[in-house]
Amino acid sequence: MAVVSNAKEQAGRRVLLTAGFLLIAANLRTALTSVGPVLDDIRADLGLSAGIAGFIGTLPLLTFAAVSPQVPRLARRFGVDRLLWAALVLLVIGFVLRSLPVVGFLWVGTVLLGVAIAVGNVLMPSLIKRDFPDRVSAVTGLYTAVMGIVAAIAAGVAVPLAGALPGGWRTALGVWAGLVLVAIVVWTPRLSRHDRPAEDTGRDTTKVATPWRSRLAWELSAFMALSACGFYTMLAWLPSILHSNGHSEEGAGWLLLVFQLLGVTVSFIVPPLLARFADQRAVAAGSAVLAMLGYLGLLFVPQLTVVWVLCTGFAQGALFLLALMFFSLRAADARSSAALSGMGQSIGYLLAAIGPVLFGALHDATGGWRGPLVVLVVVAFLHALVGLRVGRAEHVRV
């Protein structure tokens, strides 16, 4: 009877862990995706210029870049579970402040949201490595799928909520604090857990004191940076590219939705596909080549735009998923995963914040999209080369 009782207790803890894990994933993008649809309302209400309003979307990415390297050190001091709980509390505070009728709180709340999400971004791969070491690919796919689905819902209901709820856009943005409170309740029992780094018995481990001195860590960071740059650039400029090719604004918006939903679909397709290969080189390089094919199609055969959107959507979804997976797959243990994730996401999100701006500046300088698309082709080619490097079955212990 004692054995049965212990098994039930372990199963209950596993269910609670999985529920909390998925709830954290669900809260890592809503603060970002819910802003864009009501940005015009925010501008009109606060009297912001287009440039200042656009900074609302860029500020969290810059916060990610600044905060991510500090997260592993904080995790070693306070523990992964406690730090994630604190990030959820900070997320609620950020949601509330951003929704209050004080202009300064909009920016303070946005920064706090960026800090909280940065903590979650860095620690989730470490959590997967620690608690799901034998199912890293599948759990990462589930994590990104939940994150993408809830993010898409947040974007889709933002305008209806702003029109239906008192307080308009402020309430539409602040309502997501409720989902964070649910996550806090479910995650609170984890505060009593004492974090223990996972051990590694592999013989192909490269030991380094810091990821900043590891060649593989820099390759992982480059892969993350190229993935983030390509994804966020397409997210920002794909509708404009499609509109210049003759699509209506409504049609371009629907194709952008398809582009994002493909990223969610990939989360279910790629993990089983990886099981067929000894390492991830073929999938990483192949996804980058598919992205390059999509960019070339938009450049030379714009009549088949739908095909090229499908290519780039699938490819970018796979590349971003792989970038997150590599922080767990290339790490020898949970502590190393957090360190690699902190370094990679710092560099990656810095480029993600700069990439769309440079892409738009190049469009202004050349008067069209041919030059910017050529740059994306080059980025995809470099992405394939880096994918052949990081896809090898090597590990780093930090």
Descriptive report:
This protein folds into two domains: 13-192, Growth Hormone, Chain: A (Up-down Bundle), CATH 1.20.1250.20; 205-397, MFS general substrate transporter like domains (Growth Hormone, Chain: A). It is mainly alpha-helical. Helix 6 runs antiparallel to helix 7 and helix 14 (305-329) packs antiparallel against helix 15. The protein has a two-stranded parallel ribbon. It has 16 helices and two strands. It starts with a helix and ends with a strand. The chain has helices at residues 2-26, 30-33, 39-46, 50-67, 71-78, 80-99, 103-131, 136-164, 169-174, 177-187, 215-244, 249-274, 281-300, 305-329, 334-366, 370-390; strands spanning 205-207, 395-397. Helices cover 79% and strands 2% of the residues. Residues 196-204 have low confidence and may be disordered. It is globular.
Summarize the structure.
This protein has 398 residues and is an all-alpha fold. The chain has helices spanning 2-26, 30-33, 39-46, 50-67, 71-78, 80-99, 103-131, 136-164, 169-174, 177-187, 215-244, 249-274, 281-300, 305-329, 334-366, 370-390, and strands spanning 205-207, 395-397. It has 2 domains: 13-192, MFS general substrate transporter like domains (Growth Hormone, Chain: A, Up-down Bundle), CATH 1.20.1250.20; 205-397, Growth Hormone, Chain: A (Up-down Bundle), CATH 1.20.1250.20.
